[in-house]
Amino acid sequence: MPIHTHPLRTLIDSLRRDTFFLILLAGLAVLAIATRRPLGDYPALVDWPTIGALAGLLALTKGLEMSGAIGWLGHRLVGAMASERKAALSLVAASALLSTVLTNDVALFVVVPLTLGVCRIAALPATRLIVFEALAVNAGSALTPIGNPQNLFIWQQSQVPFAQFVLHMLPLVLPMMAALLALTALAFRSRPIAASAEHRRRQIDRRLLGVSLALYIPFLAAADMHHAGWAVLAVLATFLVLRARVLAQLDWGLLLVFVLMFIDLRLLAGLEPVRDAMHGFGLDQPKHLYLAGIAASQLVSNVPAAIALAEYSRDWRVIAYAVSVGGFGFMAGSLANLIALRMSGDRKAWIGFHAWSVPFLGFAAALGYALLFWLD
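-> structure tokens emitted (376 positions)
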């Protein structure tokens, strides 16, 4: 008889192995002593609309993933690849497109395993492909408010309409994607590859697929109207009744990480020496804010950078550009980079990643600067 691990036990085991969570937890302990703020104040430090929107998106994307539809589409795509260059362009473009609606992390969870499978069959350069897919999800996810956690936070904080956010990011994302696709075409050869043999029939849970798709647009509309709390309750209740296993496999640990991130960063921002230092950077000036966002992303990744900068400025347009650009460069710039390199299984993948990502940061930073301050 198979032994089923209790979801709570699985969550605890996962958190015990999550280095980032443990760092945040240790930071909370230190900050609690330093600030002496009552524990009852901590829930007010969390941006609950952002957490609600993230929880709903995680549930809906998990539903799509568990329905089997994404895997089926991926394998259909594989069959159409005829050369190394076309395979690379297809996978990079697919990564970027998926990241606009499934978030950058989820896009990687879909595309990277598929890439590794294709590379085993066709002897493609797996590490280089995964590096370019990491760059692609950083670029593509910048387009929409739901493409990545930092955009989700900025969108909920700014309360701008979905379409307005997209229109603001479009001039940055289109040239970045054009440059990335051109770079992909240069980095991969045109040699023919054998068609993938993995076309085994895949079962699709049509009911789960239908429910996930049916809830997606109403959820986004509700979040756009600032009703993310009620919307996520409706989504979770629907899955609880129809497919409880979706909730059991949801990444609840990621939500806890974001809750801790809000508390830690806002406690830190409340310390007088930190506030004095941050005010000394002149973050009220858009150019300083833009450069600070890129630099902070390189040090702590772009999600914490967005949360921290929001404590000192409400200029969402500049912050959104800064943390989107900041996802490139060093691998710490975005959690998606770390996920992709970890999934590659290549301990030296970080070398190839930086060889492509650091120069791309220079291009993206100059592009964002020009769009914000020269062409505006």
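The radius of gyration is 21 Å.
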